[in-house]
Amino acid sequence: MPDNTRRSRDEGFWQTFADRYAVEPGPLNLENGYFGRMSRTVVEEYQRNIELINRGNSVHVRQRFEQDESVKIRAQLAELIGAPAEAVALTRNASDGLQSLIRNYNRLEPGDQVLIGDLEYDTVKGAMRWLARYRGVEVIEIEHRHPASFDSLLATYREAFVRYPRLKLMALTHVTHRTGLVMPVQAIAAAAREHGIDVILDGAHALGQIEFNLDELGIAFAGYNLHKWIGAPLTLGFIYIAPQRLADIDPDMGEMHFPVTDIRARTPYSTPNIPALLTLPLVFEEHRAMGGSIAKGMRLNYLRNRWVNAVRGLPGIEVMTPDDPRLYCGITSMRFTRHADQQVMVERLLNDYNLFTVARSGAACGPCIRITPGLTTTAADMDLLTRALTELR
What we know:
By secondary structure, the protein is α/β, with parallel strands linked by helices. The chain has 13 helices and 13 strands. Residues 44-370 form the Aminotransferase class V domain.
């Protein structure tokens, strides 16, 4: 058994990391996809930074943060994703960044078409529909067949590319927030290029639990969160624009604080959460010490498979996410097929078993319950979930 696989199942090894996080007594949190926990050391660093900036105020910010610290942090962030520093700009979160990319994409003409799927995040859908009102484009909306497969997902996009020849731009989600389905980004992006279609990638749930290379994926525009699987404080995300494609995204609403050749002009200029930003060097260090995205992803996948393998195929339960390792990560959704209202079952899981989950709707495949283990979750927790699902079905 490879070392990474063996380590993903080593409860003692992962307990040493779990012990670094403070956890409030109460329900077992299986809704870790919302945002991630900061370690105790990151919380302490964050608190120190709040006090530091409060004491130093604009003297520290003008003399040290703007001139030196922010430059180093941006370089470290770029190194984390294997990109040049000039390709990234910090934002408050992935949604803010994706909205900036969509509204400032300048290669659309009235009559062009843009594409969204049923599994996209609602904020992204709203931004693409905004283009229809203010740019005169047509929004094409597709639905994915269920159950999904690698070939069916790719075929759905290929069919759309042929059927709608005026497509110029599409949104694509790397890890879908509704079901946890991992899209075959590289194959879809390659097919899109064949038809002259640009892709804006929503990577909110991917960074930190999936190892990827943006050049290999063929992605020029993307938005990410740092507060989900990387372990940063809330209010931190970033955009990525391939340097050779920067001119295809306009400065945000005429932003003039940075030169037109600087990616930072593609986001709204404002006072950021400086104490949170100052924690990032420690956050990146701890992420790497834990083994990075590969180790985190394998651990989360192991926890996911522990409950999925136990309940898939049981009457009364449908697991929404396929078992093709190319198409799943730690986030996976299911539903009780004998119960119409999944929210009722979310409440049963909480009230009867002390398990906190969340209902999700909006996908063409129907309402579901999203289950997301985290870095403090144990194999025993997954066994409790298995027992609950088996009894409630």
